[in-house]
Amino acid sequence: MNDLSFLNDLGAVVAADRAHVWHHLSQHKPYETTNPRVIVEGRGLRVWDATGREFLDAVSGGVWTVNVGYGRESIANAVRDQLVKLNFFAGAMGTVPGAVFAQMLIDKMPGMGRVYYSNSGSEANEKAYKMVRQISHRRHGGKKWKILYRERDYHGTTIATLASGGQPERAAQYGPFPDGFVTVPHCLEYRAQWSDADYGRRAADAIEEVILREGPDTVGAIVLEPITAGGGVIVPPEGYWPRVQEICRKYDILLHIDEVVCGLGRTGTWFGYQHYDIQPDIVTMAKGVASGYAAISCTVTTEAVFDMFKDDASDPLGYFRDISTFGGCTAGPAAAIENMRIIEEEGLLENVRLMGARLGDNLAALKEKHAMVGDVRGKGLFWGVELVQDRASRDPVPEGVARAVVAAALDRGVMIGVTNRSLPGFNNTLCLSPALIATADDIDTITDAIDGALTEVGAQAN
Ligand code: PMP
Fold this sequence. Notes:
The chain is an alpha/beta fold and 462 residues long. 38% of the residues lie in helices and 15% in strands. It has 14 helices and 15 strands. A 7-stranded mixed β-sheet has the order 4-10-9-8-7-5-6, sandwiched between helices. The model has no long low-confidence stretch (mean pLDDT 95). The site of 4'-deoxy-4'-aminopyridoxal-5'-phosphate has 16 residues, from helix 5. Belongs to the class-III pyridoxal-phosphate-dependent aminotransferase family. It comes from Roseinatronobacter bogoriensis subsp. barguzinensis.
């Protein structure tokens, strides 16, 4: 029998972590001489590390996930009760929480009809790509097989989702990749690629140009984040989305929206795309679906997409021949049901709109005060602060400067994020995504810490 008494000895726990855990997205060399930070406990927006230090987490678990905050006993209880009753059943049969959550979700997504369960954002997107490929075979003689994706967007870490990632350095050294994923230009107006006044429409027209170049009868789908997250918190300009929808309809291209970050309230509506009066064909989601209380992701489709997989029951290949073993674990939907109930009962969408406006105002004030802030953008409780060397040239600050601001904010007890390291030259956008329960005090604490951090790092730079 293993001796687990060391669980109560946090020093031993940290030593075990340092000796044996391979951390995500980390170069481990520094841990030869320092300890990794191990987070022990969380409540609301606050977490405590193994040394007992408290932090206000302004990034919801590091990766915009813990939407309803830490320490939710009602979610833990719902999961516990469900696991005791039935923890798992996968394959062709359903489970009670799987059915209930699917109904709740579809009620929030007019026009959508079916929910396919898996475990992570990457996996949900892979399922969507497989659907698109199979539809191409079933409806278009295998010709409409290409999937468009946008520069700076991210859709996951598996080989196919990396192939559809707009942050090329993430994919470096992991090739070769599967064919059929084609990039379209990003739509960040602050780093404009065109001079048109109607920038949103122009950026969407660029998608049509790619479709015409590739051949419309070869393009099956386009996958887009409603608001690009790790690529720089990019809110598409006015006019972008209606034009994207128009283009998709014109060329019979499925519109796949990746709501892995924006889903479940992050931007003040249930889903990010719901700000824009568009009707997607496929929507994927993960992180906020159960706020990190259990692993769950969903690939949601319209009934029209679903119908293409059941219209020929005599064809042995005519259905979606895919499974995700742990898509049958009931912890996910049980947590997701309670997570959604909390968002609704506590009026969190309204809170996101109110607190998001406050966060936006506070950040605008920081832009007035600090020359290093080039652009501030976001929606709801989802904001980016792009740092530049000089406002006229808009040259990004070197990567080290943005990281120094993150470290200086951490010294002040606030965890903030920064755009993914895989954007060389553009790893200069601070990212904020506090839990949807943030109060006015929390928001002010976050922006005060950034204010102090910018002052400190700005003084060092001069
Ligand atoms: N899509 C988006 C927009 C994401 O931000 C992420 C994760 N950061 C993913 C997909 C992949 O999700 P996961 O890490 O759960 O596979």
